[in-house]
TrEMBL record:
Record has Lipid biosynthesis as a keyword: no
Subunit structure: The complex is composed of two ATP-binding proteins (UgpC), two transmembrane proteins (UgpA and UgpE) and a solute-binding protein (UgpB).
Presence of the UniProt keyword Transmembrane helix in the record: yes
The protein's name in its UniProt record: sn-glycerol-3-phosphate transport system permease protein UgpA
Amino acid sequence: MEKRVFFTHTFLPYLLVAPQIVIIYIFFLWPASQALIQSFLQEDPFGLSTEFVWFDNFAYIFHDKFYMKSLYTTALFSLAVAGIAMVFALFLAVMADRVIRGATAYKTLIVWPYAVAPAVAAVLWMFMFNPTVGIIVFFLKAHGYAWNHVLNGGQAFLLVVIASAWKRISYNFLFFLAGLQTVPKTLIEAAAIDGAKPFRRFWDITFPLLTPTTFFLLVMNIIYAFFETFGVIHQITKGGPNHATEILVYKVFRDGFLSLDLGGSAAQSVILMAIVILLTVFQFRYIETKVHY
Protein backbone atom coordinates (compact mmCIF):
# COMPACT_ATOMS: atom_id res chain seq x y z
CA MET A 1 0.00 0.00 0.00
CA GLU A 2 1.42 3.39 -0.99
CA LYS A 3 2.03 5.84 1.83
CA ARG A 4 2.00 9.58 1.35
CA VAL A 5 3.27 12.28 3.62
CA PHE A 6 1.03 15.27 4.23
CA PHE A 7 2.24 18.53 5.76
CA THR A 8 -0.29 19.88 8.21
CA HIS A 9 1.60 23.16 8.51
CA THR A 10 0.98 25.45 5.54
CA PHE A 11 4.40 27.11 5.50
CA LEU A 12 6.56 24.08 6.40
CA PRO A 13 7.17 22.89 2.78
CA TYR A 14 8.23 26.39 1.75
CA LEU A 15 10.49 26.66 4.78
CA LEU A 16 12.23 23.37 3.90
CA VAL A 17 13.00 24.40 0.32
CA ALA A 18 13.81 28.03 1.17
CA PRO A 19 17.60 27.49 1.73
CA GLN A 20 18.00 25.87 -1.69
CA ILE A 21 15.93 28.56 -3.38
CA VAL A 22 18.03 31.28 -1.73
CA ILE A 23 21.27 29.60 -2.85
CA ILE A 24 20.01 29.22 -6.44
CA TYR A 25 18.93 32.86 -6.52
CA ILE A 26 22.18 34.26 -5.07
CA PHE A 27 24.62 32.12 -7.05
CA PHE A 28 22.76 31.56 -10.33
CA LEU A 29 19.61 33.56 -11.04
CA TRP A 30 20.87 36.94 -9.87
CA PRO A 31 24.32 36.72 -11.58
CA ALA A 32 22.69 35.37 -14.74
CA SER A 33 20.18 38.21 -14.83
CA GLN A 34 22.93 40.79 -14.27
CA ALA A 35 25.01 39.29 -17.10
CA LEU A 36 21.98 39.39 -19.39
CA ILE A 37 21.31 43.04 -18.60
CA GLN A 38 24.97 44.00 -18.94
CA SER A 39 25.24 42.26 -22.31
CA PHE A 40 23.07 45.03 -23.80
CA LEU A 41 25.22 47.81 -22.35
CA GLN A 42 28.48 49.44 -23.30
CA GLU A 43 30.42 50.66 -20.24
CA ASP A 44 33.72 52.41 -19.85
CA PRO A 45 36.35 50.57 -17.76
CA PHE A 46 35.83 52.90 -14.77
CA GLY A 47 32.05 52.60 -14.69
CA LEU A 48 31.53 56.35 -15.19
CA SER A 49 29.27 56.07 -18.23
CA THR A 50 26.87 53.48 -19.60
CA GLU A 51 25.18 53.31 -22.99
CA PHE A 52 22.38 50.98 -24.09
CA VAL A 53 23.56 49.42 -27.37
CA TRP A 54 20.95 46.69 -27.93
CA PHE A 55 22.58 43.72 -29.75
CA ASP A 56 25.81 45.44 -30.80
CA ASN A 57 27.89 43.39 -28.35
CA PHE A 58 26.54 40.14 -29.79
CA ALA A 59 27.06 41.32 -33.37
CA TYR A 60 30.66 42.23 -32.61
CA ILE A 61 31.30 38.84 -31.01
CA PHE A 62 30.25 36.86 -34.07
CA HIS A 63 32.44 39.03 -36.30
CA ASP A 64 35.45 38.50 -34.05
CA LYS A 65 37.77 35.90 -35.56
CA PHE A 66 39.30 35.14 -32.17
CA TYR A 67 35.88 34.34 -30.70
CA MET A 68 35.06 31.94 -33.53
CA LYS A 69 38.46 30.32 -33.04
CA SER A 70 37.72 30.05 -29.32
CA LEU A 71 34.39 28.39 -30.10
CA TYR A 72 36.10 25.77 -32.25
CA THR A 73 38.83 25.25 -29.63
CA THR A 74 36.20 24.75 -26.91
CA ALA A 75 34.33 22.12 -28.93
CA LEU A 76 37.51 20.17 -29.72
CA PHE A 77 38.84 20.57 -26.18
CA SER A 78 35.65 19.39 -24.45
CA LEU A 79 35.32 16.32 -26.69
CA ALA A 80 38.97 15.39 -26.17
CA VAL A 81 38.88 15.84 -22.38
CA ALA A 82 35.59 13.99 -21.93
CA GLY A 83 36.61 11.15 -24.25
CA ILE A 84 40.07 10.57 -22.75
CA ALA A 85 38.91 10.90 -19.14
CA MET A 86 35.98 8.51 -19.57
CA VAL A 87 37.85 5.85 -21.57
CA PHE A 88 40.76 5.68 -19.12
CA ALA A 89 38.43 5.76 -16.12
CA LEU A 90 36.35 2.89 -17.51
CA PHE A 91 39.48 0.83 -18.18
CA LEU A 92 40.78 1.41 -14.63
CA ALA A 93 37.37 0.64 -13.15
CA VAL A 94 37.18 -2.68 -15.03
CA MET A 95 40.67 -3.59 -13.81
CA ALA A 96 39.91 -2.53 -10.24
CA ASP A 97 36.69 -4.54 -10.23
CA ARG A 98 38.73 -7.68 -10.87
CA VAL A 99 41.33 -7.05 -8.14
CA ILE A 100 41.01 -9.26 -5.06
CA ARG A 101 44.15 -8.59 -3.03
CA GLY A 102 44.92 -5.01 -2.10
CA ALA A 103 41.75 -3.76 -3.78
CA THR A 104 41.21 -0.95 -1.25
CA ALA A 105 44.74 0.42 -1.63
CA TYR A 106 44.54 0.18 -5.42
CA LYS A 107 41.25 2.09 -5.56
CA THR A 108 42.46 4.71 -3.08
CA LEU A 109 45.56 5.46 -5.16
CA ILE A 110 43.40 6.00 -8.25
CA VAL A 111 40.99 8.29 -6.41
CA TRP A 112 43.69 10.50 -4.86
CA PRO A 113 44.19 12.83 -7.90
CA TYR A 114 40.57 14.01 -7.51
CA ALA A 115 41.59 15.78 -4.29
CA VAL A 116 44.26 17.80 -6.10
CA ALA A 117 43.26 21.38 -6.87
CA PRO A 118 43.19 22.32 -10.60
CA ALA A 119 46.00 24.86 -10.18
CA VAL A 120 48.17 22.30 -8.38
CA ALA A 121 47.51 19.68 -11.06
CA ALA A 122 48.42 22.24 -13.70
CA VAL A 123 51.71 23.08 -11.98
CA LEU A 124 52.55 19.37 -11.73
CA TRP A 125 52.10 18.79 -15.46
CA MET A 126 53.73 22.10 -16.33
CA PHE A 127 56.91 21.08 -14.52
CA MET A 128 56.94 17.62 -16.08
CA PHE A 129 56.62 19.17 -19.55
CA ASN A 130 58.86 22.16 -18.89
CA PRO A 131 60.86 22.73 -22.12
CA THR A 132 64.09 23.13 -20.15
CA VAL A 133 63.98 20.89 -17.07
CA GLY A 134 60.90 18.71 -17.58
CA ILE A 135 61.50 15.01 -17.01
CA ILE A 136 59.10 13.95 -19.77
CA VAL A 137 60.64 16.46 -22.17
CA PHE A 138 64.04 14.94 -21.35
CA PHE A 139 62.87 11.54 -22.62
CA LEU A 140 61.14 13.11 -25.63
CA LYS A 141 64.35 14.87 -26.64
CA ALA A 142 66.28 11.64 -26.17
CA HIS A 143 64.04 10.12 -28.86
CA GLY A 144 64.45 13.09 -31.21
CA TYR A 145 61.17 14.89 -30.50
CA ALA A 146 61.39 18.63 -29.76
CA TRP A 147 58.85 19.86 -27.19
CA ASN A 148 58.09 23.47 -26.36
CA HIS A 149 54.46 24.14 -25.51
CA VAL A 150 55.28 27.79 -24.85
CA LEU A 151 55.79 28.36 -28.58
CA ASN A 152 53.91 25.47 -30.19
CA GLY A 153 50.13 25.84 -30.09
CA GLY A 154 49.41 22.19 -30.87
CA GLN A 155 51.66 20.99 -28.06
CA ALA A 156 50.12 23.49 -25.65
CA PHE A 157 46.63 22.25 -26.54
CA LEU A 158 47.71 18.64 -26.05
CA LEU A 159 49.22 19.45 -22.66
CA VAL A 160 46.10 21.16 -21.26
CA VAL A 161 43.95 18.29 -22.56
CA ILE A 162 46.16 15.72 -20.79
CA ALA A 163 46.25 17.72 -17.55
CA SER A 164 42.49 18.34 -17.56
CA ALA A 165 41.62 14.73 -18.39
CA TRP A 166 44.01 13.36 -15.75
CA LYS A 167 42.29 15.53 -13.15
CA ARG A 168 38.88 14.10 -14.10
CA ILE A 169 39.72 10.40 -14.35
CA SER A 170 39.32 9.80 -10.61
CA TYR A 171 35.80 11.27 -10.58
CA ASN A 172 34.72 9.08 -13.50
CA PHE A 173 36.43 6.06 -11.96
CA LEU A 174 34.28 6.24 -8.82
CA PHE A 175 31.03 6.19 -10.79
CA PHE A 176 32.12 3.52 -13.25
CA LEU A 177 33.32 1.27 -10.42
CA ALA A 178 30.03 1.71 -8.57
CA GLY A 179 28.16 0.89 -11.78
CA LEU A 180 30.25 -2.24 -12.42
CA GLN A 181 29.50 -3.54 -8.95
CA THR A 182 25.76 -3.42 -9.69
CA VAL A 183 26.07 -5.65 -12.76
CA PRO A 184 24.68 -9.11 -11.86
CA LYS A 185 27.54 -11.61 -11.77
CA THR A 186 25.15 -14.36 -12.86
CA LEU A 187 24.82 -12.78 -16.31
CA ILE A 188 28.60 -12.67 -16.74
CA GLU A 189 28.97 -16.28 -15.57
CA ALA A 190 26.20 -17.46 -17.90
CA ALA A 191 27.86 -15.76 -20.86
CA ALA A 192 31.22 -17.31 -19.91
CA ILE A 193 29.63 -20.76 -19.77
CA ASP A 194 28.18 -20.15 -23.25
CA GLY A 195 31.71 -19.53 -24.50
CA ALA A 196 31.71 -15.72 -24.80
CA LYS A 197 35.17 -14.16 -24.65
CA PRO A 198 35.96 -11.44 -22.02
CA PHE A 199 35.66 -8.57 -24.49
CA ARG A 200 32.38 -9.90 -25.88
CA ARG A 201 31.00 -10.29 -22.34
CA PHE A 202 31.94 -6.72 -21.55
CA TRP A 203 30.61 -5.19 -24.79
CA ASP A 204 27.32 -7.15 -24.98
CA ILE A 205 26.42 -7.38 -21.29
CA THR A 206 28.40 -5.10 -18.99
CA PHE A 207 28.60 -1.93 -21.06
CA PRO A 208 24.87 -1.75 -21.95
CA LEU A 209 24.10 -1.97 -18.23
CA LEU A 210 26.53 0.91 -17.65
CA THR A 211 24.82 3.26 -20.12
CA PRO A 212 22.95 5.26 -17.40
CA THR A 213 26.27 5.89 -15.64
CA THR A 214 28.00 6.66 -18.94
CA PHE A 215 25.31 9.14 -19.95
CA PHE A 216 25.50 10.92 -16.59
CA LEU A 217 29.29 11.16 -16.82
CA LEU A 218 29.12 12.41 -20.41
CA VAL A 219 26.96 15.36 -19.33
CA MET A 220 29.13 16.10 -16.27
CA ASN A 221 32.40 15.84 -18.21
CA ILE A 222 31.23 18.23 -20.92
CA ILE A 223 30.25 20.76 -18.26
CA TYR A 224 33.59 20.18 -16.53
CA ALA A 225 35.51 20.83 -19.75
CA PHE A 226 33.55 24.01 -20.39
CA PHE A 227 34.00 25.60 -16.96
CA GLU A 228 36.19 23.80 -14.42
CA THR A 229 39.30 23.59 -16.59
CA PHE A 230 39.85 27.34 -16.29
CA GLY A 231 42.44 26.88 -13.54
CA VAL A 232 44.46 24.39 -15.57
CA ILE A 233 44.56 26.60 -18.66
CA HIS A 234 45.29 29.76 -16.70
CA GLN A 235 48.21 28.17 -14.87
CA ILE A 236 49.82 26.41 -17.85
CA THR A 237 49.25 28.54 -20.95
CA LYS A 238 47.02 31.54 -20.08
CA GLY A 239 45.16 30.83 -23.31
CA GLY A 240 48.27 30.95 -25.51
CA PRO A 241 50.28 30.65 -27.54
CA ASN A 242 48.42 32.71 -30.13
CA HIS A 243 45.01 31.84 -28.57
CA ALA A 244 45.62 28.10 -29.17
CA THR A 245 44.21 27.08 -25.77
CA GLU A 246 41.73 29.93 -25.26
CA ILE A 247 38.40 28.24 -24.60
CA LEU A 248 35.20 30.25 -24.22
CA VAL A 249 35.29 30.61 -20.44
CA TYR A 250 38.87 31.84 -20.58
CA LYS A 251 38.02 34.37 -23.30
CA VAL A 252 35.25 35.73 -21.06
CA PHE A 253 37.86 36.21 -18.34
CA ARG A 254 40.42 37.79 -20.69
CA ASP A 255 37.99 40.26 -22.26
CA GLY A 256 36.19 41.12 -19.03
CA PHE A 257 38.97 41.29 -16.42
CA LEU A 258 42.05 42.02 -18.54
CA SER A 259 40.69 44.05 -21.47
CA LEU A 260 37.86 45.54 -19.35
CA ASP A 261 35.29 45.01 -22.12
CA LEU A 262 32.47 44.49 -19.64
CA GLY A 263 29.58 44.48 -22.10
CA GLY A 264 31.36 42.16 -24.54
CA SER A 265 32.36 39.68 -21.84
CA ALA A 266 28.80 39.70 -20.46
CA ALA A 267 27.46 38.90 -23.93
CA GLN A 268 29.99 36.08 -24.23
CA SER A 269 28.90 34.65 -20.87
CA VAL A 270 25.25 34.73 -21.99
CA ILE A 271 26.14 32.88 -25.20
CA LEU A 272 28.22 30.37 -23.22
CA MET A 273 25.33 29.74 -20.85
CA ALA A 274 22.96 29.25 -23.80
CA ILE A 275 25.38 26.81 -25.47
CA VAL A 276 25.66 24.69 -22.33
CA ILE A 277 21.87 24.65 -21.83
CA LEU A 278 21.22 23.68 -25.46
CA LEU A 279 23.95 21.04 -25.36
CA THR A 280 22.50 19.52 -22.18
CA VAL A 281 18.98 19.51 -23.66
CA PHE A 282 20.32 17.85 -26.81
CA GLN A 283 22.05 15.17 -24.76
CA PHE A 284 18.90 14.40 -22.77
CA ARG A 285 16.67 14.56 -25.84
CA TYR A 286 18.66 12.42 -28.27
CA ILE A 287 21.52 10.62 -26.52
CA GLU A 288 19.43 9.44 -23.57
CA THR A 289 17.26 7.42 -25.96
CA LYS A 290 20.22 5.03 -26.29
CA VAL A 291 20.37 4.52 -22.53
CA HIS A 292 19.08 1.25 -21.05
CA TYR A 293 17.65 1.64 -17.55
